[in-house]
Design goal:
The chain is an alpha+beta fold. Helix content is 33%, strand content 25%. Strands 3-4-5-7-6 form a five-stranded mixed β-barrel. A two-stranded antiparallel ribbon has the order 1-2. A hairpin with a 2-residue loop joins strand 3 and strand 4.
Length: 174
Amino acid sequence: AALSARHGGGRSEAGDPPRRVASMIAWLRGRLLDKQPTRLVVDVHGVGYDIAVPVSTFAAVGDLGSEVTLRIHTHVREDALALYGFETAFELRVFERLIGVSGIGPKLALAVLSGIEAPEFVGAVQRGDVARLTRIPGVGKKTAERICLELKEKLPPLEDAGAAAPRVPPADAL
């Protein structure tokens, strides 16, 4: 599963569904150059990738100069190409389900995963816990209800949260 289809952005002016684009970048491993709560810059063989991340990934990566490995969602629009990085495959899958919800783009999906850990989010959606979801900054009652309605049956099982973090093998194992 080297390259999988990912959403390419919003609807066109004609109302056509989003284009599906093969993922250009599925994961990155490199040296951490810059670290901010919502973004990282990772040097991969002399190229610095600016990657938006949830707070959980920010907290999990090491110090500046350390090697990091991130699972990447490449988001392509007509006017931008953005990288969203996650420490685990489980977080990435939850993010990709979130951006499939009507009215939720990558920035809000990232804010959701910064406001609640992915396993807790999945549990809240499965329980229909609108009150918990509305405590996340940027998520109102209608958005929380839409998330519960659209994702109740689509999120990865909670059992995958612990097992979903197989790391990309070290470079010497490839």
